[in-house]
Design brief:
single chain, 344 residues, alpha/beta, UDP N-Acetylglucosamine Acyltransferase, domain 1, eleven-stranded parallel sheet, 3 helices, flat
């Protein structure tokens, strides 16, 4: 979509240095952008490309403006401007309204204006689809579920029975919302399944990544509040409660009945034990195991950064020796290991 530099600067809340009537129509990287493209400098790792760029305009911070050889827009937060600029120059294309002849839609389904139901969708009894909802090819919405206005369900996603999803949400392909929680009781060494009577309640402006799963509650609902962003391959167990505007990177696992506060950030591969709580405004770095409650805001870590194998073995040996000495009441210093210690 074509924008004049003047209009783009106004939309991004920035200050333009350049001709207001010049136009751009796409976004491209600094090192390959041409005169028809806008580029964004939000990571100093790529500043080396700024002096040679041929972009029609560069959106950047004030500290980089003097080094820019082409028209530029100065903004307070270039990364936020990038998020908004891409949406302006490359607006999403919505599917045409209508029901594909191969879709299976129950007679009791209620649909709002502009709803699109693609090929081979299955929509169960009593489902309510708000205005401009999009169901991608092969997606399934089971009986009694409610999906709010302008929500997009991508191809082959599955919304199980009686799930409630808010407005302007995005459910990516392969996601399963409302499957049974992992609930079993032991009986003489065998497992007895516990019926899962709750459902899932998802707020407005939530995005759920590809192949992520959110289990239905055992008795009360699993709740995902407004504005939560969930990456691909994330598992959220039954009866969890995720606070507004939190975000989870890929491969996070949240065990049942965990309560996560608002604006919490969980890095890739984080594990959260069941029945614990995490306070608002917590950041947990990648591969951390959260095994007890976190009651104060802050940044938390438990994983070891990568290092060469001999150094890692010596470190493990040293830690094990210190633990043995502490247990024995001797906490004096110890020598480094040679990599052949039996504790490594």
């Amino acid at each position: 979509m074509e924008w004049t530099l003047g209009a783009l600067a106004e939309a991004l809340g920035g200050t333009l240095e350049g001709e207001i009537s010049a136009c751009v129509r796409r976004v491209a990287p600094l090192d390959s952008a041409g005169e028809d493209a806008a580029a964004f400098l939000f990571n100093q790792q790529y500043r080396q490309h700024l002096r040679f760029t041929a972009a029609g305009v560069v959106v950047l911070a004030a500290g980089d403006a003097a080094a820019c050889p082409v028209p530029h827009i100065v903004v307070p937060d270039p990364y936020l401007a990038y998020a908004r600029g891409v949406s302006l120059l490359h607006p999403a294309v919505r599917a045409l309204a209508g029901i594909h002849p191969t879709a299976v839609v129950a007679d009791s389904v209620r649909t709002g204006a502009g709803v699109s139901i693609a090929a081979r969708c299955v929509v169960g009894e009593g489902v309510v689809l708000g205005d401009h909802v999009q169901l991608g090819a092969g997606s399934v919405v089971e009986e009694g579920s409610v999906i709010g206005d302008y929500t997009e369900v991508s191809p082959n996603a599955v919304i199980r029975r009686q799930v409630r999803i808010g407005r302007r949400c995005v459910i990516q392909s392969g996601a399963v919302i409302g499957t049974d929680g992992f609930g079993f009781a032991r009986d003489a060494g065998r497992w007895v399944k516990i019926p899962q009577l709750g459902s899932v309640h998802i707020g407005d402006d939530v995005e759920i990544g590809a192949n992520s799963t959110i289990d239905r509650g055992a008795m009360s609902d699993t709740v995902i509040e407004d504005g939560v962003k969930i990456d691909n391959l994330v598992q959220i167990g039954h009866n969890c409660h995720v606070g507004a505007h939190s975000a989870m990177a890929g491969c996070v696992g949240v065990s049942g009945s965990a309560r996560i506060g608002e604006r919490v950030l969980l890095g890739g591969g984080v594990g959260v034990a069941g029945h614990i709580s995490i306070a608002n405004d917590v950041v947990v770095t990648g591969m951390t195991m959260v095994s007890r409650p976190i009651n104060q805001p802050g940044v938390y870590s438990s994983g070891w950064p990568v290092r060469d194998a001999p150094t890692w073995r010596r470190t493990v040996a040293l830690v094990n020796r210190l633990l043995r000495r502490k247990a024995a009441g001797d906490v004096r210093g110890t020598e480094g290991g040679d990599g052949n210690d039996k504790d490594a």
